[in-house]
Amino acid sequence: MRMRPGLRKSVLATHLTVSVGWIGAVVAYLALGVSAVTSQDAQTVRTAWIAMDLIGWNVIVPLALAALATGLVMSLGTPWGLFRHYWVLISLVLTVLSTIVLLEHMPTVSSLANMARAANDADLAGGLGGDLFHPGVGLVALLVVTVLNVYKPQGLTRYGWRKQQEERQNEREQASGSQP
Amino acid sequence: MHDETGDETGGRSDHEYPGTPRWVKLFVVIIIVVVLAVVIVLFIGGHTSPVQHGP
Is there a domain that residue B14 lies in? Predict the structure, then answer.
């Protein structure tokens, strides 16, 4: 199925917006994570964890799901396909893995935010720890996907190459069949 | 009849899968090295999950 140009541009604009928004939200989350780790002020640590919980569920998770959904639509609705080109395939794998890890990790963030709400200042001043590993790795993965999407390095998968051969064969047959 | 074992360019390469691109191989190697490094660091240093620092 191929999308019409107008629809394709709309989906592409949506995909770009939510994908870049996802990266920006992760950067904001990382800033809060650094504050949670480095600050000795209980109020700052508490606020950071509550904000990380809110940003995670209300911004990062919806943007991740939207980026995955619009990416799938873009792949399937254009000649790029989903499994034809290595850059699309790698982008898909990284996005799916990032989304799964995010959804698996967010309940832990929520429980820590609840701990931060309930803990007294003395406990929080000792530090609740931070959350830098998951968003750090996730940010690297998203930047890799961005680079792949911008540069679109060449390289067909075995499946993509086979489909390309079939399409060329069909074109040859149609061309020879249309000749008088 | 057109000979399907060859093509107009005279080479067989058009009918053979050109193989995995070099950048993909390099990418996979980098991913494996990074994952191994993370696993080793976590295994040696111990995973410091924030949950363990809870009050």
Answer: no
